[in-house]
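Q&A log
Question type: sequence-to-structure
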Amino acid sequence: MNPIVKEFQDDVALKNEVKELSAKGISKDDLYVISHDVDRTERVAGKVDANTVGINEEGLGTAVGNIFRKKGDELREKFKELGFTQEKANELEAKLDHGEILLIVDNAESA
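Response status: OK
Response body:
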């Protein structure tokens, strides 16, 4: 089953969603924040108590390859490593281009 993606414009709504999902028993380990900017992603993830997509989720090969990729390509690779198709990864990356913050719920059956 593919992860669930939830879109947000601001940190407050995202934080409320993370609290709600946590109350339903979804672990922090299954929640990932992604935005187009690394600093924003890390800041928001820390603020709402969720994860970022790192080497454990990407795998070493993708993480090393991302060093040489353009930002959009890097983000699409992260989405593919989380289980999305190339088409869906393209769609999600386009949302990030427009300022969205995405919350990926990897434990989809509980959301």
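Response note: The chain is about 50% helix and 15% strand.
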